[in-house]
Amino acid sequence: MKKVELLAPAGDLEKLETALRFGADAVYLGTERFGLRALAGNFDLGQLRQARDLCRAQGKKLYLTLNAWLRPQEFPDLAALLEELRPLDFDAYIVGDPGVLATVRQVDAARPLHLSTQANTTNAQGVNFWAAAGVARVNLARELRLEEIRAIRAATACELEVFVHGALCVAYSGRCLLSAALTGREANRGLCAHPCRWRYALMEETRPGEYFPVEEDERGTYVFNSRDLCLVEHLPELVAAGVDSLKIEGRMKSVYYVAAVTRVYRAALDRCLADPRGFALDPEWRAELDKVSHRPYGTGFLFGGEGAGVHAADSAYVRACDFVGVVREEGESLVVQGRNRFLPGETLEIIGPAMRTAAFCVNEIRSLEGDSLPAGQPNRLVRLTLPEGTQAGDLLRRPVKSLGDTDQI
Ligand code: SF4
Q1: Structural class in CATH, domain 321-399
Q2: 293: closest CA among 250, 263, 327, 326?
Q3: Of 24, 51, 99, 194, which sees the most CB atoms within 10 A?
Q4: Pocket of ligand 1 (CB under 6 A)
Q5: CATH topology of domain 5-168+226-309
Q6: What atom in ligand 1 is closest to the CA of residue 179?
Q7: What is the pLDDT of residues 159-178, one digit of tens each?
Q8: Beta-carbon-side half-sphere exposure of residue 386 (alpha carbons within 13 Å)
Q9: Residues facing residue 5 across a β-bridge
Q10: 225 CB-near residues (< 8 Å, 6+ apart)
Q11: What integer best gives the mean pLDDT of the chain?
């Protein structure tokens, strides 16, 4: 079967290293300006060079997002940024605004261009239009059904990319003024406060204080609330439909999220490419995806947008694990850098690439100097007895039942 790329988010250098280590073929990341995700870590020029070096050393691809919609006065700054980035050896810009596309063409004509999902491309005519404008790859609108993706593939030679995992948006990806209107934070600048997921009630003007709940069903009022996309069990259909790249959403997610989700999709994609007919969902993959912070999962619009594929009655994040720490190299030995507090006697899990997972009991926590400590603390480097096979870059987690917030650290 043809090679299909697994494309993972890289909100900062640590997440980039993690995504590569846990199986991504390519990563996408933002510069400090003009990439939607104003609150993600984003990269300055020095960090971009490091990112480029890391990707090149491993033969992986690096794409830079420039997918904001710009105002007239911003184009001189964009041209200056493009000029600055021109010597840097990376694989493509991801753009959405035709004005940005035209400016890249002028300043950095040789650079490949990918079209962002923000451009909402829903048909082959559109894909071919963008291809004629110099776009090498189109990230198709998330609203497409599988048979529509197949039809587009049959009518274009352009590379096609689809999202397979992560948050959905009730508006056409970020083309929504709700956040700007209610909070002054514009979704189109990567600042969405997600007000579509807040609780709402209806009040008739002459009855102040009498709220009528906006009910979808007996469980709640989340009429705009979307599920998270999860297509891990449908990779064979997507590969057979001819997509070139499978994209994981989430530049603002934690290192732990990037690691766990990337390794699941790596395992699933490898299995799918090796034996598409014999492919079956491994329960371990879904269990692993349940161990990261997520809203209820659905298949989005792939099989039609109605009902449970997209909308959820409950907006709460759930997860089955807490991110506890990262394994680092310290001289000849391995140490743990804490991300959350942990205690002696706790049972933790180590996760590594290729779905390597090992549970172990923390018998003693020691400082780098060897003193016994009552707990591991965020950011502190400590020594533990780790399971055999543990490697630098592995992550530690702790099982929890469910929490109402994200796992972003
Ligand atoms: S407010 Fe909701 S629908 Fe609008 S852009 Fe943000 S996430 Fe999307």
Answers
A1: mainly beta
A2: 250
A3: 24
A4: 169-171, 174, 176, 178-179, 187, 192, 194-196
A5: TIM Barrel (3.20.20)
A6: 1
A7: 999 999 988 877 776 677 78
A8: 25
A9: 245
A10: 170, 196, 197, 295, 311, 312, 313, 314, 315
A11: 88
